[in-house]
Structures are given as C-alpha cells and as structure tokens.
C-alpha cells in the first residue's frame, strides 16, 4: 500500500474508506459533498451513519458545475460551523468542495463576487478530504477549481487550496460506465501532455507528466478491456494525480483553450473536448519541437488512434460546425501557455486535422 506526503497534502490508498475518512476528520461538523449516484447506491447514508459528529449532505452536484448552483449551495451551509469538508466523487464534486471550503472562513462576499473579482479564496481553517471516484481532472491535487456559467457562456477558473487529504480506493471506480472512465482518463492524458508543451514547464513538472503518461497510457487500455482490473484502475488514479500535480505548476495550454467553447456551446464532455486535438497538435509541430520524448509520443499516438475519438466527437458535433461557428475562440489565458504563438486560424486548422 502506497502513501505519499506532499506538503501540505497527504495522499494514500485505502480499502476501508470509512476508517480512512474517520482517521482524518477533525472534531466538529462535517459537510459531505457528493453526487446523486452515491446517495442512490447507499454510500451517502452509510457515511452519514458511521462518521463521527453531525454530517450535512450536499448530493446534487452534476458535471460542469454552474456558478449559480455553487452560490446557492454555499448559502445553505455558510452558517453551519463546518469543520470538515469531505468530497466523494469526480472532478466536478471536488471543484465544488474546494470553492465552498474556501468560502467557509466567513467572507462577506458572495461566490459570484469573488469569482468575478478573480480573488484567490481563503485557505480553509478546517480539514478538507477528497475521495476521487474518477481518474481525470486531478482536482484532488490542483490549487484551482472550474465553474461554468451557461447564462453568460463563461468558464471561470478560481484559485483555491487543494484538499488536505486524498484517499484512493480503486473499488469505487469499478462500476463507472465506459465513457465516464474514458473521458476522465483523456482529461488526465491531456493535462500531462499540455504540461510538457508549455512555457511554464519545469524539471519537476516534466517528471510528474512523464510519470502520469506512463501510468495512464498503460492503465487506460487495460481498464477499457477489463473494467474490474483494480491494479489498472489504481494506475489511472495515480496517473491523474501526477498529471494534476504537473498542471498545478504549469497550468493547461492550447488543447484546453480549444476545448472550452466546445463544452459551452456543444456540451461536449470536457475530457473529450480537450483531448481530441492532441494527436493533430503533436503531428503538426512534431514531438521534438514540442519537447516530448519520442517513446512517449509514439505510445500516445498509438493509444489515441485505437480509441477512435473521431467517432466519440461525432456524437456531439461535426468538424465543419466547429470551425464555421462564430463563437469559436481561443482562451488566451490557456493558449498563451503553449510553447509556440498560435491564433484562432491555427486552431481551426488543428480541429479540421483531428478527424
């Protein structure tokens, strides 16, 4: 059993989630943030019954969490005196938990005000614990969270603290649908690759990204072939963590810049939207120019080819629809992290080369 300590975060594997959470809790009231699926399966009620102290539940988190939802949810719990925030779920659940935890010290501002002012959230004075159940965003190790606002067609990235404790239990991932597993892993792969072709790349981020890709490119085909393979699931969990650690240093780059309008306007799942262009970008610039090791690049292309991402994309939108859409744009906050200058015209060329 592995255990990694990275200040100020403890990361460990577990086969007894309740015992591991209980061990990490501080005395006081706990807010459990999760999604409806865990309530339906009975896991939420089990945690409420067996964890020490009062446990409040927010179990209505969905993918691409909306700003107004987080605002309303924070309003429910801001006066509760929460000491622990426990999040059980994928990246969306963890992002919501990080934002709410960062607001709980008692700011007089609303979530909307803080987000739009681009202010960093205050560090949570209690204990935050993440149990990731998908292996993708790396939200459990990043110091930022993503919220969406469909009303204004905006995506917001909020600076916040990462969870204090991360607990991996591969068994919680065994029942994930194939597409959920695939899109999450693609997100993690994109994170690792994006941190390599990045102006903010460091020796540390490079090492983390390579470890991530070694785990992800090995584990993903195994999991898709055998969803109950716990060892391969564990590879995906650590791969996502390493990839998240890498982008915590570098932030994401051009593949993510292309992805955001696709998710906002066509509801393309984020992991798919930020990964379907990876091969075209790699082939356009070349692995050597992008500073990606040749063996990693070859393995990446092989895995992406076998996944047939063009078929996945066609379920949502056609390529010509994307490049003809007047709302298509590059997010400069991300595209400027790419090691070469790029513009919207280049991005459209990449999209057309991606089928």
Major sheet description? 7 strands, mixed
How are the strands of the biggest sheet laid out side by side?
1-2-9-6-5-3-4
Proportion of strand residues: 5-15%
Please state the CA-atom Rg, rounded to the nearest Å: 19 Å
Low-confidence stretches: 1-7
Shape field:
globular
Query: End-to-end distance, in Å?
Result: 41 Å
On the 0 to 100 scale, the average pLDDT is 91
Overall helicity: 40-55%
Protein name: Alcohol dehydrogenase
GO molecular function: alcohol dehydrogenase (NAD+) activity; metal ion binding
Domain Fe-containing alcohol dehydrogenase-like C-terminal: 182-302
Family: Belongs to the iron-containing alcohol dehydrogenase family.
Please tell me about this protein's structure:
Helix content is 50%, strand content 14%. The protein is α/β, with parallel strands linked by helices and 355 residues long. The strands form two sheets. The chain has a seven-stranded mixed β-sheet, sandwiched between helices. A two-stranded antiparallel ribbon has the order 7-8.
